[in-house]
């Protein structure tokens, strides 16, 4: 067979783009493929075995619908585009996520879809619950909180809260991050799949979780109600309240659901109960409601039957996988704990080493400072020793000077005392001399008086003698050549001797008086000179004492 023949036999294909919540894939499909063929291909590519929850959704003429599994893809009313886009989404929701979602991929896809519905406000969630859910989403994405790694601002590019909540509370992004991080820090040790499961367990309790809403009317003219289909049954809501249904039909209480044109009929299991009929705006909406009712009812009944061998195997595998993951997580937790302990021990050792190095550095610096201080102290000691020697020398000199001054002072005192004594002696001498001078003056006066008296007596005696002579020898006056001397010598020999002796005594007395006077004058002159010398010495001593006082 030629290559050309092989080419002719190759089937024609068309391209499709499969969009999951977090990824896109492209496939080449054969023209004859049915919806189930494409769906199985996608499930195999994803490794998904719990296929009954999912479907391929597309949008045509503004209405979302699901690809039918039993019809060819190209025979269905799909968008005319290349490649044809389909969204791989959860079509039916479990009643209890923890029991029904067995595969990790199934759980992850549900987590991403429910999270998107909450952020897009398709599922209402209170602000407090959104913060808690956001913390589990952060745990699933970033793992355990590490303050050294997850610094402020690390959630700045993550969409974690609905815009309604952000508008409702006037908080900054930093405040929201702080609130989320406070919860996030408490989830330490929770693995990604556990965090996602905790997220879904909280979300499944929300009133709008897993509910598909459709506008309906109790008559053909008004659309004033909402019909909701979920895993538990069919619910009727007022147009403005999607939380609390006005009426509910559980799957276990429904006997039959029929669809014709725009009318949908719900027949309760109790035949006496009223049959509920409602109308939708389009036939396609009725068919979509009918498909969802059939699918949810089938799953509801399936959950209450004994699991098939395939489900049992999947559950066993899931349990084994969970046990394995649990052991693996425990092992990883232990290893992580050991690693953290080792890191802490390493950090402690590094800190201790750094501390020891720092202490060693400080010790070396202290040693250097001590050496420098020792050298400085040695220099200071040497200087102090030299200063001490100099001070000792100065002290010795000062002591010598003090002793000299004391000696000088003693000498000065002694000399002063001697001088004072000499002065006192001189004063006494002066007093004595004055007294002696007075005495001598008095004696001289007496002597002078005596001399005067003696001279006066001599004069009188001479006068008397002359008178006597004149009386006895009058002729001598007439005869001057006659000398009566011999006669006087003969007649008055004894009286002449007496006069001569008296004259000699007078002369001698006068000479003694004159000599004593000269001696007194000489002594007075010497005494005055000595007094002057004493005064000069005393003045010099006083000047020396003043200079010594100024020097001290």
TrEMBL record:
Signal sequence residues: none
Binding site for a 1,2-diacyl-sn-glycero-3-phospho-(1D-myo-inositol): 68-71, 287
Name listed for the protein in its UniProt record: Merlin
Lineage: Eukaryota, Metazoa, Chordata, Craniata, Vertebrata
CDD domains associated with the record: FERM_B-lobe, FERM_C_ERM
Keyword check for Metal-binding: no
Keyword terms of this UniProt record: Cell membrane, Cell projection, Coiled coil, Cytoplasm, Membrane, Nucleus, Phosphoprotein, Ubl conjugation
Residue ranges of coiled coil: 311-464, 517-544
Top-rank taxon, per record: Eukaryota
InterPro entries: Band_41_domain, ERM, ERM_C_dom, ERM_FERM_C, ERM_helical, Ez/rad/moesin-like, FERM/acyl-CoA-bd_prot_sf, FERM_2
GO molecular function annotations of the record: actin binding
